[in-house]
């Protein structure tokens, strides 16, 4: 299962795909960084960055495997058309299925009276395999653990 999460980190901290984070008591692995923006502060040493990430919750089922690429048409009024039309590459949650999808193509835009209809092609965001998730957890645990040699 995927979740969109927000992380508030110092600007000096590196954030990357594959990072393990704990959020709401659950282990999650970042599989995509959707966007980042700085928080305005008075001093450079206090600079922080907000990261919006797509994270996979460890030990949950992969719902995306049940779906394939699909086409859908959405309607927008004149006001929303200029502000809310999805762009190619956007990653959004499909409320009807509960999975995250990526916009691959805008196939058609049509104006009809006081509204626009936009036809999109979406692909489910592929979740990481159980083996990849375990590898991230093991790597993260290894970075905190130290083994000492016994002295005779």
Label the overall shape: flat
Strand content: over 45%
Largest sheet: 4 strands, antiparallel
Record the strand order, biggest sheet. Answer: 1-4-3-2
Q: Helix share of residues?
A: 10-25%
How many structural domains does the protein architecture include? 2
Rounded to an integer in angstroms, the radius of gyration calculated over CA atoms is 20 Å
Sum this structure up briefly.
With 152 residues, the chain is mostly beta strands. The chain has 2 helices and 8 strands; from the N terminus they run E-E-E-E-E-H-E-E-E-H.
Which characteristics define this entry?
152 residues; mainly beta; 2 domains; 4-stranded antiparallel beta sheet; 2 helices; 8 strands; 14% helix; flat
Structure description:
- The strands form two sheets. The protein has a four-stranded antiparallel sheet with strand order 1-4-3-2. Strands 5-8-7-6 form a four-stranded antiparallel sheet.
- The chain contains two helices and eight strands.
- Strand 2 and strand 3 (26-39) form a beta hairpin.
- The radius of gyration is 20 Å and the shape is flat.
- The protein starts with a strand and ends in an 8-residue tail after the last helix.
- It folds into two domains: 2-58, no CATH class; 64-124, no CATH class.
- The protein is mostly beta strands and 152 residues long.
């Amino acid at each position: 299962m995927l979740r969109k999460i927000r992380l508030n980190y110092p600007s000096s901290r590196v954030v990357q795909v594959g990072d393990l984070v704990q959020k709401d008591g659950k282990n999650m692995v970042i599989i995509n960084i959707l966007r980042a923006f700085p928080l305005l502060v008075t001093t450079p040493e206090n600079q922080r960055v907000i990261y919006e990430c797509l994270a996979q919750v460890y030990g949950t089922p992969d719902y995306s495997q049940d779906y394939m690429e699909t086409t859908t048409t959405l309607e927008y009024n004149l006001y929303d058309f200029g502000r809310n039309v999805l762009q190619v590459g956007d990653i959004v949650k499909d409320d009807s299925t509960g999975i995250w999808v990526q916009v691959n193509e805008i196939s058609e835009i049509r104006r009809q009276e006081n509204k626009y209809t936009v036809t999109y092609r979406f692909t489910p965001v592929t979740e990481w395999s159980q083996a990849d998730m375990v590898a991230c957890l093991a790597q993260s645990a290894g970075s905190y653990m130290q083994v000492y040699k016994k002295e005779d």
